[in-house]
Amino acid sequence: MATMQGVRFLTLATGSKGNCHVLMTPHAQVLVDCGLGPRLLAKALQSHSIDLKLIDAVFVTHTHTDHVSGLGPLVNRVPVRVYCHEKLAAETNRAIHQGRLSNSGSTPRLFPAGTSSGYELVPFSTRGGFSHRDLDVLPVPVSHDCSPTIAYKFYVNGFQLGVLTDLGATDSKLTEVFGDCDVLLVEANHCPQMLAQGPYPEFLKARLRSSRGHLSNEQAATFITGLKRLPPNLLLGHVSDVNNRPEVVSAAFERIETGLIPHTVIPQRTVGPMVELSR
């Protein structure tokens, strides 16, 4: 593949309607999750002149549909490596096969990466990190009701980038691991007051509030203030379009003792800003 200078990060979609992020380095072009259908994925990539055919890997956080529904259609078009936690290998493989069948009608097969069509499933553990091309990758388990759910920290060219969504609670390990990121995507899922007064049934409200659900705006803000340093590029995603609003998210990041924390809120159905890092 043609190399590029610097590092770029772009959120293509974040939230219950679909999740997908792209990280581009001098020697890799990868997705974190693929919860977009083929047409939406291609359109989002094309809006930033990104060639779908150059995607070489997908890092799966967990197997909820909004994170993996686009894997099958993707591997019908591009040979990729699909990285997932070892305990989710069978479920990830099944999601890919179902997506292939529903979009092409063909019998799904597992191909080695590098062939004209197919994918290589690469299970990992959280006992340590691993590498993909010029990326060093640290998978970190988080508390969510799909177990395991993985957050990722990427190291490349002296930069650190973190993707930390779909979790109901934070802890000191997460504060330590993600405390020095140059780019950090954190979820700010709901406003507690809007959730309490909103239309969701009580069991779903309880799920979202729980330690295995999703972070509220205030929980996200508290987490950020506890980091060793504020990330120069802070992105707030997985924002509910029923129990939250972008201006309500921002308000939570203005009420804290340190004052306003610079950030960008990425609503659902919205492509985020292109973040570019270079030295």
What is the overall shape? globular
Q: Total number of β-strand segments?
A: 14
- Percent range for β-strand residues: 25-35%
| Radius of gyration, whole Å | 18 Å
> How many domains make up the coordinates?
2
CATH class of the largest domain: Alpha Beta
Distance between the first and last residues' Cα:
22 Å
Uncertain ranges: 103-116
In terms of structural class, how would the helical and strand content be classed?
alpha/beta
What is the ordering of alpha helices and beta strands? EEEHEHHEHEEEEEHEHHHEHEE
Question: Can you describe this structure?
Answer:
There is one protein chain. The protein contains nine helices and 14 strands. The strands form two sheets. It has a seven-stranded mixed sheet, covered by helices on one side. Strands 7-8-9-10-11-12-13 form a seven-stranded mixed sheet, with helices on one face. By secondary structure, the chain is an alpha/beta fold. The chain is globular, with a radius of gyration of 18 Å. The protein has two domains: 126 residues, Ribonuclease Z/Hydroxyacylglutathione hydrolase-like (Metallo-beta-lactamase, Chain A, 4-Layer Sandwich), CATH 3.60.15.10; 104 residues, Ribonuclease Z/Hydroxyacylglutathione hydrolase-like (Metallo-beta-lactamase, Chain A). Strand 2 and strand 3 form a beta hairpin.
